[in-house]
Design a protein that fits this description.
It is a single chain. Strand 31 (507-510) and strand 32 (514-520) form a beta hairpin. The chain is of the alpha+beta class. Strands 1, 2, 3, 8, 11, 14, 15, 16, 17, 18, 22, 25 and 28 form a 13-stranded mixed beta sheet that branches. A six-stranded mixed beta sheet has the order 30-34-35-33-32-31, sandwiched between helices. Helices cover 25% and strands 25% of the residues. It is built from 16 helices and 42 strands. One 2-acetamido-2-deoxy-beta-D-glucopyranose (NAG) is lined by residues 236-237, 242. Residues 43, 50, 52 line the site of one 2-acetamido-2-deoxy-beta-D-glucopyranose (NAG). The chain crosses the membrane at residues 413-439. It is a single-pass membrane protein.
Length: 843
C-alpha cells in the first residue's frame, strides 16, 4: 500500500511537470470542424474563422427537394447573416462524423430582407437525429433582429443529420451552421442537483443548449479568443443590485491552470476577471451578490460555476457560500482548499430547475460569517438547458412527432433500428425516472422494509447509470456464464421448492433488480434467493459482476454465493442466509435491541476485514463501491459480512493510480473526491466506511434531509463534533456512560481519518482495521483493568494485544464448484502478515 501511494505522489508530480504547463499552450484541434455558410457562394470570415459555402463542402450532403438562396447586400448584423438557404419542404444536412462524442451545433438565423419571401413570419423547426433543437420559432414576436443558438449534442454514430422543418404552406431557412467536436472532458455525465440534494447522472445521453455564458466583470470574449469557439458575455445586466459587486481583474498571464482545468474549460480571460463584494455602505456586510436569469420553468439546467481566487492576498482567507435559487450549493466553500494556490482556476457543476413557480433562476454568492475576511467571488457562469423527456430543448414534441414519417427513417431497416434504439432509450429513461423516484421517495419516506438482507441495485439511494453499451456486454457475458465455474447450479424446480414457489411470506426485500426470498434447501440449509426480474434488463451488468466477483472470493467476512440458476431465462442467485439481517436495522428504524459498544466494534472490525480482503486479498484489488450499513449483514452470531458486489470494480493495476469511471455508489456515502474527479481508488471505500463508523456511533442515517441543514449529512455533522473532540455529544444515547473514553477517542479518530477530504490522507483498510482492533482492545482492557488512558494517536503502545482471531476458512460450497484453495491461501497469507502487524511482539 505504501508503495502505491508513493507511486501516486510521484506520478502526480510527473504528470504535473510534463503536462501541467504545456497544456495551457496546446490548443484543441477538433476532429470534426464544420463551419458552413448556408446559401453563400463564397467563404465568409466571421470572428476569425472561415465559413465555407454549404454546397462546396465535400463531406456534407444536403437533402432537399427545393431550396433557394437569399443574399443581402448589407453586412448587417454581421457577415455570417448575409446569406440564407430557404426551404419549402423538409430538408436536411448530413454531416460525416470522424469522432463520436459531444459536438457543438451552432445555428445562425436572420430573416434576410428582399429574399422574395417574408422570412420574418417563417416558422423554424430544427431537429437532429434524436433531439429537437428548435420548435416553431418565428421572428414575428421576437425582440432581436437575429438569432444565434448553441447546442451540445453527443453524436454516437458516424453521421449527424440536421433537419429543418417548415410549417404548412410556409418556408423555413438557416443562415449558417457549425458542427464542431468538443473535447471529452468538458461535459461530465454527473453533476450535483441542488434540489433535491443528490447526484444527477446520465447527462451524457442528454442534449444541452447554452442559454447564458458569462465572464464576470470581464470583456466580451468571442470565438476568436476561445479555443472552443464559445462566446462569454459580461454579467452586469444580470446583476440584481449593481452596487453589491465590484470588478476585480488580474493579469491573464498569471492564471495558473492545474492539471484538472484547461483553457478548454474556460479561457484565462474568464478567470482573470471576477466580481467580488462591493463596499455597499451598509452596516451589515452579510449580503449576497445575486444574478437573476430568465429561464423556462419546464426545463432543468446544468449550471457550471467558475472560480479563481484573484481577490485574496493569502490562502484560506476567502470562505463563502454559493446558492442556486434559494438552495445552498456550496457551503463554507474554501476555494484554496481545492486549488492550494491563488490564481488557480476551479469549477463546479450543478443541476437546478428554475426557482419555485417562476421563470427565473438565481445564482448568489455571499460571505461565510465565520471567515477571516468578509468577501465572496465568482469568475464565470454557464447556464445550460438540459433536454426533457421528449428529447427536446424546445416544447414537448419529439423528433418522431415533428418529422413526417417518410423522412424520419430512410428504410424499413432504419425504422427497426430506430425503434430498438427508441426502446433502449425509453428503457434508459425509465431506469433514470425510477432512480429519481427512489431518491425522491427515500427523501420523504423511510424504507418500508428495514429488513433487506441483500440490498440490490436500485434499492435505497444507490444510483447507477445504465448505458446501452454495458447492457450489451452484460448480456453477452451472462450467456457465457454457464460455462464458467460459478458454484452450484440449481434447477428452477429446486428454487421453486426452496422458496415454496416464491411465497410472498418469505419475501425478505425488494430492490430495483428484483426480489429476495428466504429459502430452505432440501438438506435444510437456509439460503437467501435473489431473483432478477426476467423481463427487466436492469442490473444485468451488476448481476454478472456480482456472480463473477463472488465466485472468485471466499472469506469469512464476505457473504458467500452458494449457487445460481439461469434456467428459463431466470437470473437467480443463491446466497448463504444471514439471520440477523443488515447492520442498519440494528442501529435505527426498528425495535431491535441496541447493540453494545463491544458488539459494534466487533461488527465494524468484521466488515473492515472483509473490505481489507477485497482490497488486498485477491490478485487484483477489488473496490466495493457501495459500502453502507445496509450492505453489511449479520449472521446468527452477529458476525458481520460484506454483501452486494453489484457495483464492484477491480482496482487499479500497479502502473495506474486510479480507475476512471462514472460515479456510482450511494449518496451520503460517496467519497467527495471520487465524485469530483471520478477516479476510483480503494480510498473511496475507506471514505464510505468512515460514514458507516459514524452511523454506527450516532445511530442515524448517513443522510437525513429532515434535520436542520448542517445536520443533514452525518459525515459533515459528526466531523464538526469530532474536530471539537466532542463526539460523545452526538453519539447514541444508549451508549452514554457505557463506552471507554479512550476507545471512543480511538474510534472517532479512525472515522475522522477515513473521512479525510483527500484520498491520500485516508488510511488503508488495513490501518483502519488495526485502529479498530486497538479501540476494541482499549474497551476490553478498560473493562478488565478499569484503567483507561490513551495518549497515543498512531502507534501501538505497550498494551498487550491478542493476535487476530484466526480466519475461518471453511466455506459453504455445496457442490464442488469452486475449490477455493487459491483464495484461501491468499487469505491465510494476508492474515499472517496482519497478525504480524497487529501483534507488536510477533517479531
Ligand atoms: C474557403 O476556405 C477553405 C477552407 O478554409 C479553403 O480551403 C478554400 O480555398 C477557400 N476558398 C476560397 C474561394 O477562398
Ligand atoms: C440594398 O439593396 C436595396 C435594394 O435592393 C437598396 O435599396 C439598398 O440601398 C441596398 N443597401 C445597400 C447597403 O447597398
Ligand atoms: C412579414 O411578416 C411580418 C409578420 O407577419 C409582418 O409584420 C411584416 O410586415 C411582413 N413583412 C413583409 C415585407 O411583408
Ligand atoms: C407555431 O406558432 C404559431 C404562432 O406563432 C401558431 O399559430 C402555430 O399553430 C404553431 N404551430 C405549431 C405546429 O405548433
Ligand atoms: C399540415 O398539413 C397536414 C396535411 O395537410 C396536416 O395533417 C397537419 O395537421 C398540418 N399541420 C399543421 C401544424 O397545421
Ligand atoms: C456519449 O455517449 C456515449 C454513449 O452513451 C458515452 O459512452 C460517452 O461517454 C458520451 N460522451 C460524452 C462526452 O458525454
Ligand atoms: C481577442 O483576440 C484579438 C485578436 O487575436 C485580440 O486583438 C483581442 O485583444 C483579444 N481580446 C481578448 C479579450 O482577449
Ligand atoms: C445596473 O447596471 C446595468 C448594466 O450596467 C444598467 O443597465 C442598469 O441601469 C443599472 N441599474 C442601476 C439601478 O444602476
Ligand atoms: C472584496 O475584495 C475586493 C478585491 O480585493 C475588494 O475590492 C472589495 O472591497 C472586497 N469587498 C469587501 C466587502 O471587503
Ligand atoms: C410549460 O409547459 C406548459 C405545458 O406543459 C405550457 O403551457 C407552458 O407554456 C410552458 N411554459 C413555458 C415557459 O414554456
Ligand atoms: C425540474 O423540472 C423538471 C421539468 O419540469 C421536472 O421534471 C422535475 O421534476 C423538476 N425537478 C424538481 C426537483 O422539481
Ligand atoms: C443569500 O441568499 C440565500 C439564498 O437565497 C439566502 O438563504 C441567504 O439568507 C442570503 N443571505 C443574506 C445575508 O441575505
Amino acid at each position: 500500500m505504501k508503495l502505491l501511494s508513493w507511486l501516486t505522489i510521484v506520478s502526480a508530480f510527473v504528470l504535473f511537470d510534463l503536462f501541467g504547463y504545456s497544456k495551457s499552450f496546446a490548443t484543441f484541434s477538433p476532429p470534426d470542424n464544420y463551419l458552413i455558410a448556408c446559401g453563400s457562394s463564397q467563404n465568409v470570415t466571421f470572428q476569425g474563422r472561415t465559413f465555407v459555402p454549404d454546397l462546396q463542402h465535400s463531406s456534407l450532403t444536403l437533402k432537399s427537394v427545393t431550396s433557394v438562396v437569399a443574399v443581402s447586400n448589407s453586412s448587417f448584423p454581421s457577415p455570417i447573416y448575409q446569406s440564407a438557404r430557404i426551404f419549402s419542404k423538409v430538408a436536411s444536412y448530413k454531416f460525416q462524423i470522424q469522432q463520436e462524442g459531444r459536438h457543438w451545433i451552432r445555428l445562425y438565423f436572420y430573416p434576410v430582407p428582399n429574399s422574395g419571401q417574408n422570412l420574418t413570419s417563417a416558422s423554424i423547426t430544427a431537429v437532429t437525429d434524436d433531439f429537437v433543437l428548435l420548435n416553431n420559432f418565428t421572428f414575428k414576436n421576437y425582440k432581436g433582429s437575429y438569432l444565434f443558438k448553441e447546442y451540445a449534442v453527443n453524436v454516437t454514430s458516424d453521421s449527424l443529420t440536421l433537419s429543418f422543418i417548415p410549417s404548412n404552406n410556409s418556408v423555413t431557412f438557416v443562415n449558417a451552421i457549425e458542427v464542431v467536436s468538443i473535447p471529452d472532458g468538458i461535459f461530465p455525465d454527473q453533476a450535483f442537483s441542488v434540489n433535491p440534494r443528490a447526484p444527477f447522472s446520465g447527462l451524457s445521453e442528454l442534449a444541452f443548449e447554452t442559454v447564458y455564458r458569462l465572464n464576470m466583470g470581464g470583456p466580451l470574449i468571442t470565438a476568436q479568443n476561445d479555443t472552443l469557439g464559445r462566446t462569454w458575455e459580461n454579467d452586469a445586466k444580470y446583476l440584481h443590485v449593481n452596487s453589491s459587486a465590484v470588478t476585480v481583474t488580474a493579469n491573464p498571464a498569471l492564471i495558473n491552470y492545474p492539471a484538472s482545468v484547461t483553457p478548454e474549460t474556460a479561457p484565462n480571460w474568464v478567470y482573470a476577471t471576477a466580481k467580488a463584494m462591493g463596499n455597499a455602505n451598509v452596516a451589515n456586510m452579510n449580503f449576497n451578490i445575486t444574478w437573476v436569469f430568465s429561464v423556462n420553468r419546464n426545463f432543468s439546467y446544468f449550471v457550471r460555476v467558475h472560480f479563481c481566487d484573484i481577490v485574496s492576498k493569502a490562502l484560506n482567507n476567502l470562505v463563502f457560500n454559493l446558492y442556486i435559487n434559494d438552495n445552498s450549493a456550496l457551503d463554507s466553500f474554501d476555494l484554496s482548499s481545492f486549488t492550494n494556490a491563488l490564481n488557480v482556476p476551479y469549477y463546479r457543476d450543478f443541476v437546478s430547475n428554475s426557482s419555485l413557480e417562476s421563470n427565473t433562476l438565481t445564482v448568489s454568492v455571499g460571505p461565510d460569517m465565520e471567515a477571516d475576511i468578509t468577501n465572496a467571488t465568482m469568475n464565470g457562469l454557464e447556464i445550460i438547458k438540459i433536454s426533457n423527456e421528449a428529447k427536446s430543448l424546445d416544447g414537448l414534441s419529439s423528433v418522431e412527432s415533428l418529422l413526417p414519417e417518410s423522412l424520419s427513417k430512410k428504410s424499413k431497416i432504419g425504422i427497426i433500428i430506430g425503434s430498438v434504439a427508441g426502446a433502449v432509450a425509453a428503457f434508459a429513461l425509465s431506469v433514470f425516472c425510477y432512480c429519481c423516484l427512489v431518491v425522491r421517495k427515500s427523501k420523504t419516506t423511510h424504507q418500508g422494509h428495514p429488513w433487506l438482507p441483500l440490498p440490490l441495485y436500485g434499492n435505497s439511494q444507490t444510483m447507477t447509470k445504465v448505458s446501452t453499451a454495458s447492457q450489451k456486454s452484460g448480456t453477452a457475458s451472462f450467456i457465457s456464464l454457464a460455462s464458467s465455474n460459478l458454484g452450484r447450479f440449481f434447477s428452477f424446480q429446486e428454487i421453486l421448492d426452496a422458496t415454496n414457489k416464491f411465497d410472498e411470506n418469505l419475501l425478505l426485500g425488494v430492490g430495483g433488480f428484483g426480489r429476495v426470498y428466504k429459502g430452505t434447501l432440501e438438506d435444510g440449509t437456509k439460503v437467501a434467493v435473489k431473483r432478477g426480474n426476467p423481463r427487466s434488463e436492469q442490473g444485468l451488468a451488476e448481476f454478472r459482476t456480482e456472480i463473477e466477483m463472488l465466485s472468485k472470493l471466499r472469506h469469512r467476512h464476505l457473504v458467500s454465493l452458494i449457487g445460481y440458476c439461469d434456467e428459463r431465462s431466470e437470473m437467480i442467485l443463491v446466497y448463504e442466509y444471514m439471520a440477523n439481517g443488515p447492520l442498519r436495522s440494528h442501529l435505527y428504524g426498528t425495535d431491535l435491541p441496541p447493540l453494545s459498544w463491544k458488539q459494534r466494534l466487533e461488527i465494524c472490525i468484521g466488515a473492515a476485514r472483509g473490505l481489507h480482503y477485497l482490497h488486498t486479498g485477491a490478485a487484483q484489488s477489488i473496490i466495493h463501491r457501495d459500502v453502507k450499513t445496509t450492505n453489511i449483514l449479520l449472521d446468527e452470531n452477529f458476525v458481520a459480512k460484506v454483501a452486494d458486489f453489484g457495483l464492484s470494480k477491480t482496482g487499479p493495476a500497479l502502473d495506474q493510480t486510479h480507475v476512471s469511471t462514472a460515479v456510482k455508489g450511494s449518496f451520503g456515502y460517496l467519497d467527495p473526491e471520487y465524485f469530483r474527479r471520478q477516479q476510483l481508488t480503494e480510498k473511496s471505500d475507506v471514505y464510505s466506511f468512515g460514514v458507516v463508523l459514524m452511523e454506527v456511533l450516532c445511530t442515524r442515517p448517513a443522510l437525513n434531509p429532515v434535520l436542520p441543514r448542517e445536520q443533514v449529512n452525518i459525515a459533515e455533522w459528526a466531523m464538526t463534533w469530532q474536530k471539537k473532540g466532542m463526539l460523545d455529544h452526538i453519539m447514541d444515547p444508549n451508549l452514554v456512560g457505557k463506552v471507554n473514553p479512550a476507545s471512543l477517542k480511538k474510534f472517532g479518530e479512525t472515522a475522522e481519518k477515513c473521512l479525510a477530504e483527500h484520498g491520500v490522507d485516508r488510511p488503508s483498510m488495513g490501518d483502519v482495521l488495526w485502529n479498530l482492533e486497538y479501540a476494541l482492545q482499549l474497551e476490553e482492557t478498560s473493562s478488565a483493568l478499569m484503567e483507561p488512558e490513551d495518549n497515543s494517536t498512531n502507534h501501538i503502545p505497550g498494551i498487550p494485544l491478542t493476535p487476530l482471531e484466526p480466519f475461518d476458512n471453511s466455506v459453504s460450497i455445496i457442490d464442488g464448484g469452486h475449490s477455493g484453495t487459491d483464495d484461501d491461501a491468499e487469505d491465510a497469507a494476508t492474515s499472517a502478515v496482519f497478525s504480524q502487524l497487529v501483534n507488536p511482539r510477533g517479531r
